[in-house]
């Protein structure tokens, strides 16, 4: 696996996780709104999924964003050193 293949795989994984987090946020908004109104829209289900699903997804998303940032910085620095040589 080359570095560009790994970066493409990581980008695709992070995109999927972003959609999961957005869907979870939308579900959270609907469930909290329903809980305030008195309509059960899955707030208890969302709370049960918070620890095993959404917290790790957020952690992976943040770690991946940091990794992509460091990767970009490293490639820019490497390209700068190749121009000097």
Order of helices and strands: HH
Shape: rod-shaped
- In helices, the fraction of residues equals over 70%
Total DSSP E strands? 0
Spatial extent as radius of gyration? 19 Å
Report the portion of residues in β strands: under 5%
Distance between the termini: 28 Å
Written overview of the protein:
This protein has 85 residues and is an all-alpha fold. It is built from two helices and no strands. Helix 1 packs antiparallel against helix 2. The mean pLDDT is 91.
Task: Please outline the helices and strands.
Elements: H1 3-37, H2 43-84
Short description:
This protein is an all-alpha fold.
List keywords for this structure.
rod-shaped; 0% strand; 2 helices; 85 residues; mainly alpha
């Amino acid at each position: 696996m080359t570095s560009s293949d790994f970066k493409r795989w990581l980008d695709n994984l992070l995109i999927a996780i972003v959609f999961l987090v957005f869907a979870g946020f939308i579900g959270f908004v609907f469930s909290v709104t329903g809980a305030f109104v008195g309509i059960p829209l899955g707030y208890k289900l969302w709370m049960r999924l918070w620890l095993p699903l959404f917290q790790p997804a957020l952690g992976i998303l943040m770690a991946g964003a940091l990794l992509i940032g460091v990767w970009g910085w490293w490639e820019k620095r490497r390209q700068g050193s190749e121009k000097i040589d």
